[in-house]
Amino acid sequence: MTAHVIADDAEALTVAAALAKEFRGGASARDAERRLPHAEVDKLSASGLLAVTVPAAHGGADVGALTLAEIFRLLASADGSLAQIPQSHFVYVNVIRRQGTEEQRKFFFAEVLAGRRFGNAQSEAGTRHVQEIRTRLTPRTDGSYVLTGVKHYATGALFADWIPVLARAEDDELHVAYVPRDAPGLTVIDDWDGMGQRTTASGTVRLDAVPVPADRVLPHHLTFRGPQLHGAVAQLLHAAIDTGIAGGALTEAAAFVRTKSRPWFESGTDTAAEDPLLIQRFGELALRVRASEALLREAARTVDAARTGPTDDSAAEASIAVAAAKAHAADTAVEVAGALFEVAGTRAALDSLNLHRHWRDARTHTLHDPARWKIQHIGRYVLNGTRPPRHGLL
Prior knowledge:
This protein is an alpha+beta fold.
């Protein structure tokens, strides 16, 4: 595969905006037919957009969190499912950056610059909670490993060249094993049937004694031994997806009201777009979206400020800022996507129009992790100065 190499933040945003415009046209049909976006994901790779966080020393643009968040917001405003597919890709590029050896960085960053994609195999079903990982990384006498386990909600695995697998070693510490998509013993099953985010390819990954060379394993547990931005970056991208879904829903609602809705007879107006009560409601919804966008930008700037040598305080500030953005964006996405029907009227509920995809996407994606716990951590931080915990979900 040959991929373009993006030079800087400005070019990354230009490319993202152009792709979002292109992807928007087919988003409804892909969702309605559950047609996986193979061609669109290939275009993401070829554009160079998936390599924009590769460090400059390895030939990448090394864009900041502010740019990365905007890339995801733009893509999600066009297609919430498509935007979620590369979220794990960037998370696991970041793992290599922080925990990889120089040789591992050299190899994998070259793969990313060439357009190779990372999926994920993180979550497991039937465990006590999300942090319980049963997948095992067992050492062999030659220094290599074998992987055994079953993963669920493996977003992007069907599109991946490499599947990073979260597993526990003999000492019960967390590691990430980077496994080729075609590795013997690895099976990806397309069994995701969620009501929303239908085309994320978030299926099941089965690992049956999958061989893994020693140099494809990274010590992820070390990420959380000191101040870290791993969780903040991962959650920032989720917040950007929710913010983008909200903005896309508002844009489509406005277009529908301007072109297809009839005014309520008591309004005394010739068009629905002149109805003062609809104008009021659109103003309220726009305020919600603008607030989410502002919180997203502020969170990204806080992450960027902490990137060079994060301290306990700067990392905590970043996590809290991202938690605020994510909690607000989640509420906004669900509210705005639901209000689309309120402002557009009965015709908007026709299944053939598929306007409900915005709400289905928002409701499904915002279940990723509970906003109520983010608000708890914000409250503890503000009231008692308690720093948030170090884990990948905050």
